[in-house]
Amino acid sequence: MKILIVEDEKRLATTIKRGLKTRGYAVDLLHDGAEAKQRILMYRNEYDLIILDLMLPGLSGEEICKEVREAGVVNPILILTARSELTTKVDLLNAGADDYMEKPFSFSELEARVGALLRRPHDSLPTELRSPEGSIMLDRKTHTVTIYDANVPLTLKEFMLLEYFLRNPNKVITRDELLEHAWDFSFSSFSNVVDVHVKNLRKKLEAARTKARIETVRGVGYRFVG
User: Fold this and answer.
1) How far is it, in rounded angstroms, from Cα 87 to Cα 102?
2) For the chain, how big is the Rg over CA atoms in Å?
3) Residue 186 has pLDDT above 70, yes or no
4) Can you tell me the distance from the alpha carbon of 4 to that of 206, in angstroms, rounded to the nearest whole number?
5) Quick one: pLDDT band at residue 122, thresholds 50, 70, 90?
6) Which CA distances in Å does 184 have to 25, 64, 147, 225?
7) What is the pLDDT of residues 9-39, one digit of tens each?
């Protein structure tokens, strides 16, 4: 799963990013409100959760939340705020925030809030994704994959790759697209990390004897067929 953090306090932002990455999430980090709004509008389908600081240069977290909601963005949004007034909390929820946290907070509390938000139904994507021929079922809520009703254990990255393939069956997907989905914007496009994880995922699909398969499109990327 992929998370966008928008926080202008760089030490705190780096700490949150490092902590979430150790839990297996792909994380992008921005420090400016206006830039964050554009990123969210352009890449809304790439993020499973957005964490916004309330006080940001360019645009506030509340303004970003309100404007992206008006543009049809439904991704879960968690706002971080140093303000504890009841009116502030009400305003944030009315602006479209799914949850908020008061600073200072512990990372364990943040992790619990993140987990709770990610377990909620996501209106922009179905909870369950299936391969066209029906043998593969991926459940985003329980984070499980079954093939012919048998559970198939996947690593976090393999799960994220399969999810993206199931969203885009029969389409050619570039390595850069897979990197942006399962890793982050700063990851080198020259790395062979995508190929390694796709190879491992392909082996597990073949072992499960599903008719669905991942084809290599030489010089471009991959196509999920089935």
Assistant:
1) 14
2) 18
3) no
4) 33
5) low
6) 9, 21, 29, 26
7) 999 999 999 999 988 888 999 999 999 999 9
Alpha-helix runs per DSSP H in the chain:
10-22, 33-42, 61-70, 86-95, 107-119, 156-167, 175-182, 193-207
Q: Is residue 137 exposed (0-12), middle (13-18) or buried (19+ Cβ within 10 Å)?
A: middle
Measuring CA to CA, which residue among 207, 93, 215 is closest to residue 151?
A: 207
How many helices (H) does the chain have, and how many strands (E)? 8, 12
pLDDT given at position 148: 95
Q: Which amino acid is located at 51 in the chain?
A: I
**Side chain identity at residue 186, one-letter code:** S
Predicted local distance difference test score (pLDDT) of residue 142: 81
The phi and psi torsions of 163 (rounded to 5 degrees) equal -55, -45
DSSP 85: -
Residue with tokens 């991942």: 214
If phi > 0 it is left, if psi is from -120 to 50 it is alpha, else beta; for residue 130 that is beta
